[in-house]
Amino acid sequence: MLENKTVAFFGAGSMAESMISGMIHAEKVPAQQIYVTNKFNGDRLTEIKERYGVHTMLQKDLPYEEVDYFIMAMKPYGAEEALAFLKDKIRPDQVVVSVLAGISTSYMEEKLNDEQQVIRVMPNTSSMIQESATAMSLGSYTQKRHERDVKDLLACMGEVFIIEEEQMDVFTGLAGSGPAYFYYLMEEMEKVGVEQGLEAKKARKIIAQTIYGAAKMVLEKGEAPIVLRERVTSPNGTTHSGVEALKAHHGGEAISEAVQHAAARSKEIREELEKVAH
Ligand SMILES: NC(=O)C1=CN([C@@H]2O[C@H](COP(=O)(O)OP(=O)(O)OC[C@H]3O[C@@H](n4cnc5c(N)ncnc54)[C@H](O)[C@@H]3O)[C@@H](O)[C@H]2O)C=CC1
Ligand SMILES: O=C(O)[C@@H]1CCC=N1
């Protein structure tokens, strides 16, 4: 029952805001039960408060005892300091949820008190409009009721996928970072549209609708992308020509490299932090 739960964000950046927006729009957690904190930057907190009607305060002023779920949403390199700060203030029945790329549940467990409940999640910024693909994996001590709550909380932001923690790096490469690849694709497509005479705003809308339609076809028809692609491709037609150019310019390889590099970076962040920790 999320209505009675209190959620506190550590960090008020773009990911925190996307999650707050998703939660507010889903109307599952009342705004008065959402606390948003930052280490510094009162202006950013004022902006968030005005936009969403949530409580905002500096981290030191948070009413820690009232919080059910702490959501860590600062940069990964701020995790150690934030967890150390939290350790003295948190009870065993309170849960730490991390959205930080590369921060493992075992790292969090090690930095917090014995048997502290932690959950690692990986949303993306489409949480803002409740269309995120979000992963969740559990720590060693997570209780069922807390797993359910966090799943419900993440469902306010889109689709939730429970995965093994070993899959978190690739999930980050695919879905956490994923929106950026599509934005990049859209930027490039828009450039061509404009160069060839379309008005920028119109080109942008055409491209967005095209990507949205393709994604919706995959989701709603349940067919493999290759099958859908073949249906677009008339023999010796325009699509054939376009896809051949993509292949000639190593388009597939470029996409695969992007995902693999992002996944590798997630792993590398973990290794760097764990090295510092030992
Ligand atoms: N932006 C994205 O698409 C996604 C980001 N993430 C993760 O979310 C986290 C935040 O990313 P962004 O929002 O993009 O970064 P951001 O730079 O926009 O925001 C970070 C925020 O944390 C605050 N902060 C820094 N140290 C702090 C501390 N010790 N305690 C409290 N607040 C602190 C900063 O003032 C800032 O408001 C990262 O760890 C990232 O891996 C995860 C999924 C997607
Ligand atoms: O770029 C990053 O590190 C974060 C994690 C996933 C998306 N943004």
UniProtKB/TrEMBL annotation:
Record's protein name: Pyrroline-5-carboxylate reductase
Enzyme kind, highest EC tier: oxidoreductase
EC number: 1.5.1.2
Domain of life (superkingdom): Bacteria
Pathway(s): Amino-acid biosynthesis; L-proline biosynthesis; L-proline from L-glutamate 5-semialdehyde: step 1/1
Binding site for NADP(+): 73-76
Cellular-component GO terms for this entry: cytoplasm
Cell compartment(s), UniProt: Cytoplasm
Domain Pyrroline-5-carboxylate reductase dimerisation: 165-268
UniProt keyword list: Amino-acid biosynthesis, Cytoplasm, NADP, Oxidoreductase, Proline biosynthesis
GO biological process per UniProt: L-proline biosynthetic process
Species the sequence originates in: Cytobacillus kochii
Coiled-coil ranges per UniProt: none
Domain Pyrroline-5-carboxylate reductase catalytic N-terminal residues, every copy: 6-102
Free-text function comment from the UniProt entry: Catalyzes the reduction of 1-pyrroline-5-carboxylate (PCA) to L-proline.
Chief location: cytoplasm
Similarity comment: family membership: Belongs to the pyrroline-5-carboxylate reductase family.
GO function term, MF aspect, one: pyrroline-5-carboxylate reductase activity
Catalyzed chemical reaction(s): L-proline + NADP(+) = (S)-1-pyrroline-5-carboxylate + NADPH + 2 H(+); L-proline + NAD(+) = (S)-1-pyrroline-5-carboxylate + NADH + 2 H(+)
Gene name of the encoded protein: proC
